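Sequence, please.
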């Protein structure tokens, strides 16, 4: 497969279409057509700021199952060596790794009520996929709800022009949690996304998708009926919606959110909009029912079909979103993301499953702005306007133009989130669990260029904001650099110790001693290196220093004395921080066990089922274990330990070598030659009991 510029832009547009649809439809999710018409008329644009209505959330960019599930379950491919032999059971294992029970991704509506909650418990009880999602086990109604469809777009995005591959991967992914018509509907969506890379005719797209599912299925009959209604009257979508509600409505297809009625709205909006993104979003959202899910599927399909032109010529869909999305999972370092970053990951997968390698733009910089309109979460904090433009000296590349208008002594700032933004701290619905993406000790690098027409020099530098007293942000500036008109600069700043506070945002500041207007171009910004950070209770009170740890334990609190107290009722709980990019480092903590079955410290943590851990266990044993598709004991020996006694644990990871110390004594040195975990964060581990510590050190000798 050759990744042309057009295909790359279509992947990006598909990601954008998905998240825009979610953000547009989320405030009135599950409302009826009649409720929406009475409150809004027809949906034409974002309504999240309508505070005269009982909306769930006034924020536009929100955590949502449609987004988190779509871009998280795709990780099954990279977690299993990008093999096309990926099985439903392996995708099910991916659920167990990334989903935190009762907290992330899924609607936790109860066993037998929420399909995904039911399936998660099946998987947790050891029932593998696809049996976990079968109607034989879960009943026809539960197995045919909407969830398979809402998580499926990504499997089409990694298969440009190859609907057969998209449909097969969609079948495996959907069968983890669903069965019957739910799988057929998911396969249709995946096929439409994949084929839309090379086909724009909507009837041909539907013909392609229908060829992959049984002709006698309800989904096939549903699509045939909608096509017939559209052929008879291609203008009146309101009448078609009424026919759909009468023949395929919720009174005919039960449960909380059945796939059949909602799939019908997706097809209806595609046909009656004739593929126009803005009109399709208006139709599918005004129609009601599962608005965010349906709008997201429509957005992904038409984003791919129309490319970035989908968002032109109508409302400003992209500006308020600024590429931002959240992936609230057990892999907290990937929670703060953006549409271009997810596009890079999808392109990497699309090539890897074909034995090829994705060469990311600008040497893999985290922020590279390489596609038109991309801002990757950057927003002006003051005195700036931002615009994605061609590079002034290299027209084939793109940059983020920072247009400033300064008075003497003023500073202009553009920042992007690296942790939970202030507006998302108390987000209702799906709580945003996240770890920072950058830490003290790492080096932030930026490439800047001053426009040649600037009237004079400006001072530029890297700025970060950290959370301080009462979780208010504090500005910290790195070294400053004078930039003459037409001059470029490579900035580098090793982030200082922040006394336990997390980095909230990072970006660029611009100042001048003169009154002037001009442009500085941000070509790229990234960071590298191992962290050197001390996690402890900071002097300034707040909550965010604790929330930089993703809680996958029953209880995690700081109000009982120790800075970090972890409690797990049954089984094993983890409290995690760090990112997949952490590779070679050491982590240490003095941990005190209290009535606990096992406890310890983990490194290279990639979720709840992928890590190395040093564990003191009952009976009196110490083990170095690897968690990956089950648990492997890499080394063990007898070790007497007791409740209430603090133990200084230390793990060092270097390449495939893992070393472990207790109280300063080296106990284990192991080379892991079989599928080694080469990157990941850290965790405190507690099994059936309680542990506590006041400090965790990373990178300190």
């Amino acid at each position: 497969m050759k990744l042309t510029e057009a295909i790359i832009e279509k992947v990006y547009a598909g990601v954008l279409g998905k998240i825009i649809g979610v953000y547009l439809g989320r405030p009135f999710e599950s409302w009826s057509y009649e409720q929406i018409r009475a409150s809004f008329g027809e949906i034409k644009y974002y309504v999240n700021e309508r505070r005269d209505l009982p909306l769930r959330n006034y924020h536009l960019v929100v955590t949502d199952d449609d987004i988190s599930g779509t871009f998280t379950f795709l990780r099954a491919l990279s977690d299993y060596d990008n093999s096309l032999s990926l099985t439903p059971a392996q995708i099910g294992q991916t659920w167990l790794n990334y989903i935190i029970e009762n907290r992330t991704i899924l609607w936790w509506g109860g066993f037998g009520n929420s399909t995904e909650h039911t399936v998660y418990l099946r998987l947790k009880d050891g029932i593998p996929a696809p049996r976990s999602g079968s109607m034989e086990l879960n009943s026809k109604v539960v197995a045919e709800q909407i969830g398979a469809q809402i998580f499926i777009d990504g499997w089409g995005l990694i298969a440009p022009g190859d609907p057969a591959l998209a449909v097969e991967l969609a079948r495996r992914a959907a069968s983890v949690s669903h069965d019957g018509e739910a799988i057929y509907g998911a396969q249709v969506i995946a096929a439409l996304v994949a084929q839309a890379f090379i086909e724009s005719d909507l009837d041909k797209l539907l013909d392609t998708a229908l060829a992959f599912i049984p002709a006698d299925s309800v989904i096939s009959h549903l699509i045939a009926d909608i096509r017939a209604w559209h052929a008879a009257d291609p203008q009146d979508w309101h009448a078609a919606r009424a026919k759909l509600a009468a023949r395929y409505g919720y009174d005919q297809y039960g449960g909380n959110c059945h796939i059949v009625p909602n799939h019908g709205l997706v097809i209806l909006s595609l046909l009656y909009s004739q593929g126009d993104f803005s009109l399709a979003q208006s139709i599918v959202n005004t129609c009601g029912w599962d608005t965010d899910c349906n709008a997201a599927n429509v957005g992904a399909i038409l984003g791919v079909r129309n490319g970035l032109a989908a968002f032109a010529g109508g409302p400003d869909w992209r500006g308020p979103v600024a590429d931002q999305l959240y992936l609230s999972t057990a892999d907290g370092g990937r929670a703060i993301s953006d549409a271009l970053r997810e596009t890079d990951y999808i392109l990497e997968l699309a090539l890897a499953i074909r034995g090829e390698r994705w060469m990311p733009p600008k040497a893999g910089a985290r922020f590279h702005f390489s596609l038109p309109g991309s801002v990757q979460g950057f927003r002006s904090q003051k005195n700036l306007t931002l615009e994605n433009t061609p590079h002034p000296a290299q027209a084939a590349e793109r940059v983020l133009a920072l247009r400033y208008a300064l008075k003497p002594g003023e500073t202009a700032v553009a920042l992007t989130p690296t942790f939970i933004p202030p507006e998302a701290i108390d987000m209702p619905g799906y709580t945003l669990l996240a770890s920072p993406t950058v830490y003290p000790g790492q080096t932030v690098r930026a490439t800047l260029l001053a426009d040649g027409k600037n009237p004079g020099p400006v001072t530029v530098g890297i700025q970060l904001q950290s959370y301080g007293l009462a979780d208010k942000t504090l500005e910290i500036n790195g070294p400053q650099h004078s930039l003459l008109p037409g001059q470029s600069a490579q900035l580098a700043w090793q982030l200082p110790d922040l006394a336990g506070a997390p980095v909230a945002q990072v970006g660029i500041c611009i100042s001048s001693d003169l009154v002037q207007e001009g442009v500085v171009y941000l070509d790229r910004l990234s960071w590298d290196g191992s962290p050197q950070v001390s996690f402890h209770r900071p002097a300034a009170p707040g909550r965010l220093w604790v929330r930089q740890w993703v809680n996958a334990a029953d209880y995690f609190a700081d109000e009982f004395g120790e800075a970090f107290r972890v409690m797990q009722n049954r089984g094993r709980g983890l409290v995690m921080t760090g990112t997949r990019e952490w590779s070679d480092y050491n982590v240490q903590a003095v941990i005190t066990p209290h009535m606990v079955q096992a406890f310890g410290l983990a490194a290279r943590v990639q979720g709840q089922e992928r890590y190395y851990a040093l564990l003191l266990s009952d009976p009196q044993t110490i083990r170095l274990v690897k968690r990956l598709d089950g648990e492997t004991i890499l080394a063990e020996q007898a070790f007497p330990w007791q409740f209430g006694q603090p133990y200084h644990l230390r793990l060092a990871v270097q390449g495939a070598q893992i070393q472990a110390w207790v109280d300063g004594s080296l106990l284990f040195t192991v080379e892991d030659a079989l599928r080694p975990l080469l990157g990941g964060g850290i965790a405190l581990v507690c099994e059936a009991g309680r542990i506590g510590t006041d400090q965790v050190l990373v990178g300190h000798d």
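The chain has 20 helices and 26 strands.
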